[in-house]
Backbone:
């Protein structure tokens, strides 16, 4: 069974959820599914489809890179860390100094989506810094 | 005259015998054919004894070994193939095939999951340890976003 067939439901979910710039390609035995989601719900729909096939999310032959993009400045984001506080850093790097923290579940405001990995956000207390995008839910 | 008839009869019997045993190909003939099959692989050898081909030596891959066995079996007259050959172990690269910067990126992405370790095993990024099903999804989401190629998720998902 080809990878495209194996993960057809994931691609279908991405299409029906409205992922934009959807790209599906196969390279070195890995099916790459990438695109932009308007919000976290769209992104989750794609991941839920993978979970239906691979409940432990351990598949090495699919790479899903569907990221929430195109959010307007001022959008509300929820901090979705595992447990710890989310560090806000001076620069978009884990090496940079921590300039503030946001608690799990706290709502922060988007300043800009600086890159796929790092978003600049502002807390309710007015602290501003770069946070790791994976821990922010739109 | 009687002797001549006897000889003729004998010759006839022998030739009939030869016809009836046509399927029986000599080991020497089989050896030639079998050697031709294996010759492509200099690290392997084959010896035919009583119509049975004994394959020995090493093959680069399981597929090549199976192909050689199949070819030997297809030689007319070969009764069986004894597989005594081995497959060469995969050479483990001494230098890591994974860029340390890539490994660091993945480690950074997973620092929220202390129960999961990022290692390089046989030149491939490998995650080990334990994770809950919820964590496993978040981990894959984080790792996939980095697009670092193949990652083995070898941790135990509870």
Residues:
């Amino acid at each position: 069974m080809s990878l495209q067939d194996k993960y057809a439901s994931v691609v279908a979910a991405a299409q029906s959820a409205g992922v934009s710039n959807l790209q599906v390609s196969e390279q070195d035995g890995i099916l790459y599914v990438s695109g932009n989601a308007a919000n976290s719900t769209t992104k989750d729909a794609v991941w839920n489809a993978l979970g239906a096939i691979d409940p432990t999310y351990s598949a090495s032959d699919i790479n899903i890179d569907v990221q929430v993009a195109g959010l307007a400045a001022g959008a509300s984001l929820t901090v979705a860390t595992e447990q710890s506080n989310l560090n806000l850093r001076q620069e978009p790097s884990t090496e940079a100094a921590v300039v503030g923290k946001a608690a799990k579940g706290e709502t922060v405001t988007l300043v800009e989506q600086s890159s796929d990995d790092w978003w600049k956000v502002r807390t309710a207390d007015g602290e501003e810094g770069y946070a790791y995008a994976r821990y922010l839910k739109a | 005259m009687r002797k001549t008839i006897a000889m003729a009869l004998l010759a006839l019997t022998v030739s009939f015998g030869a016809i009836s045993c046509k399927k029986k190909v000599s080991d020497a003939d089989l050896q030639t054919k079998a050697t031709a099959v294996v010759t492509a692989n200099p690290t392997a050898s084959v010896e035919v004894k009583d119509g049975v081909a004994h394959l020995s030596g090493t093959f680069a891959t399981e597929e090549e070994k199976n192909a050689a066995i199949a070819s030997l079996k297809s030689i007319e007259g070969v009764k069986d193939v004894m597989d005594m050959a081995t497959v060469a172990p995969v050479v483990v690269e001494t230098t890591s095939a994974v860029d340390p910067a890539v490994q660091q990126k993945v480690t950074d992405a997973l620092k929220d999951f202390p129960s999961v370790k990022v290692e390089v095993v046989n030149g491939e990024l490998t995650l080990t340890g334990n994770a809950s099903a919820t964590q496993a999804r978040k981990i894959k989401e984080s790792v996939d976003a980095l697009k670092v190629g193949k990652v083995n998720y070898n941790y135990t998902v509870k």
